[in-house]
Amino acid sequence: MLILGGGSRKGAERLSARLKLPFPVLVDPDPDRAVYHRYGLDKVLIALQRSGTFLIDKQGIVRYIHQVTNPQASVEKEELMREVEQLYQEEKRLEHEE
Known about the structure:
Layout: E1 3-5, H1 9-19, E2 25-27, H2 34-38, E3 43-44, E4 48-49, E5 51-56, E6 62-68, H3 77-97
Parallel strand pairs: 1-2
Antiparallel strand pairs: 3-4, 5-6
């Protein structure tokens, strides 16, 4: 699990410390935000940066998407944790089948 954001590395470190995150917070230094665009996170009305939460499995397949335009909105933690648990159980099942 990781967070990708625009801005500075210091800002990412502050976010990680403030939220006590047990996973990396990365920064996309590209001023054109190519990574954002690849995931459909374009700016809306010229000024609002769309944000999103994506759950990607070990094979690189996007399993969950939650996009928002409102910068104050966030992902529903319970919903995301259900998706993480479902993916975990599926990965575990596939490991046992191998």
